[in-house]
Amino acid sequence: MVAETEYYDLIGVSPNADESEIKKAYRKKALKAHPDKGGDPEHFKELTHAYEVLSDSNKRQVYDQAGKAGLEGGGGMGGGMDPQDLFSQLFGGGGGFFGGGGGSRNAGPRRGKDLVHRISVTLEDLYKGKVQKLALSKSVICKSCEGRGGKKGAVSTCTGCQGRGVKVMLRQLGPMMQQIQQPCGECEGTGEMMNPKDRCKNCVGKKTISERKVLEVHIDKGMKSGQQIKFQGESDQAPGIIPGDVVIVIEEKPHQRFQRKGDDLYCEAEIDLLTALGGGEFAIEHLDERALHVTIVPGEIIKPGVLKVISGQGMPSYRHHELGDLYVKLNVAFPESIPVNVIPDLEKALPKRRDVQKFGKKVHLDEVTLEEPNDRQRRSAASDGDDMDEDEEHGGPGVQCAQQ
Ligand SMILES: [Zn+2]
Ligand SMILES: [Zn+2]
């Protein structure tokens, strides 16, 4: 006779069932009840817990004799194993069993984390391409012990946690008993025990050692911010896992003279007034060792702020290295003053002055002078108008004067 049959009923076997019958019955039920298949997670948990107990001959014996209460009294014998873990153990990977869907647990060894590293790259380097060395320290499997942490056969499963690395504790919380998981203190959460004298001296039993590794990052011409360069399997090694990748993410540093939009470049250049009016030349320092020599043909007038383009002088595109264009905004540096005696020459060369606007006959022409705004007036003119209190009636000096 058994004390209670709840767990047997859950799995759907008789209390006389042997191990393989229990396993078979559980498999069948668990497949249907798995949350990935739309099953109720709580039910699945109970079912799995029942199996966990009945599949362990010690626990089953306790259960048969004293029921659930007996298991709880056993101290740390109660469930608490992740049902998904047990499921995975039984079917060789929970996710994998259902065709790789849902869940991070897949069949086969676990994959380690990727190491993501951002590097700032100058626009010059993205223009020309560069090989950048990047030193990083990573964990590698200890060669002396081949990742065992000690002598062959010296490692045994921790008896404190049965190799799980965690212990399930029961804690009284008011009228309830609460199960809490804690890392196993005896094995420091590793699930393994070793006699200290068998420990590998090279890695002090840690199985891995830290090693400096220099990666050569090939920054290809035309790469952009956010682009990734992957070093497969170069991340931290650990026993039983496939190392993740080292992922280098390109970050373009802002440039003083150039702005980049896709494969095009934008810059500004300043020319003097004479060049703007009468032609001449200027140069733009490029991102490589060159400077672009630009000629402004006499006869064309360059207006302040005009946008011009130099074809094929932008960034190379990634992979194909086709060149984008270089847009140049031309600013004109005006002289502060001009000798009065040359003005007649200007009058000869330039279009005639415009007539003073008449605004119809009713307007009386009031004689005024243009002054340099003082500091307060400059601030006032530069503000967006919110704090125009006493100046409001006069109107901002910069506003009306703009009209001729
Ligand atoms: Zn070692
Ligand atoms: Zn342990």
UniProtKB/TrEMBL annotation:
Boundaries of every CR-type domain copy: 129-212
Zn finger intervals (CR-type): 129-212
CDD domains from the UniProt entry: DnaJ, DnaJ_C, DnaJ_zf
Keywords: Metal-binding, Repeat, Zinc, Zinc-finger
UniProt biased composition (Basic and acidic residues): 364-378
Gene3D superfamilies: DnaJ domain, Heat shock protein DnaJ, cysteine-rich domain, Urease metallochaperone UreE, N-terminal domain
InterPro entries: DnaJ, DnaJ_C, DnaJ_domain, DnaJ_domain_CS, DNJA1/2-like, HSP40/DnaJ_pept-bd, HSP_DnaJ_Cys-rich_dom, HSP_DnaJ_Cys-rich_dom_sf
Renumbered residue ranges of the record's region Disordered: 364-404
BP terms from Gene Ontology: protein folding; response to heat
Domain J: 6-67
Protein name, entry field: Chaperone regulator
SUPFAM superfamilies, A to Z: Chaperone J-domain, DnaJ/Hsp40 cysteine-rich domain, HSP40/DnaJ peptide-binding domain
GO molecular function, one term: Hsp70 protein binding
